[in-house]
Write a structure and sequence with these properties.
single chain; 4 helices; four-stranded parallel β-sheet
Length: about 110
């Protein structure tokens, strides 16, 4: 259940790479935000060490979604020393880095 005063309990960050897998990861994150399951935020803001993005994750469960085996979104958090609560790897669901992606895959 979400505390309305604090906003959504989950915050999601996704790979937005140029591969089809990266595009799929980004689409999944957008869908979670659209359905109000999780708030989508900017992975580049975390990577750049921007304080406003680091404050935004306080007291939230962090979800990262990676579209390929390189796992850049998880790597950003590892490098920043921030624990991720849920790491979704689309390769585990049959999404290939440069394979076909359509609405049925996501």
């Amino acid at each position: 259940m979400v505390d309305e005063k604090k906003g959504k309990a989950f915050i999601v960050f996704a790979c937005a790479g140029c591969s089809r897998g990266g595009q799929a990861a980004y689409s999944v994150a957008l869908e979670l935000d659209k359905r109000e399951t999780a708030e989508m935020s900017c992975l580049a803001g975390i990577a750049a060490g921007k304080p406003s993005f680091h404050r935004k994750i306080k007291d939230k469960k962090i979800i990262t979604i990676d579209g390929c085996p390189t796992e850049c979104s998880k790597g950003v958090f590892d490098k920043a020393g921030i624990q991720v609560d849920v790491h979704v790897k689309l390769k585990d669901y049959g999404i290939r880095k440069n394979g076909p992606v359509n609405d049925y895959d996501i």
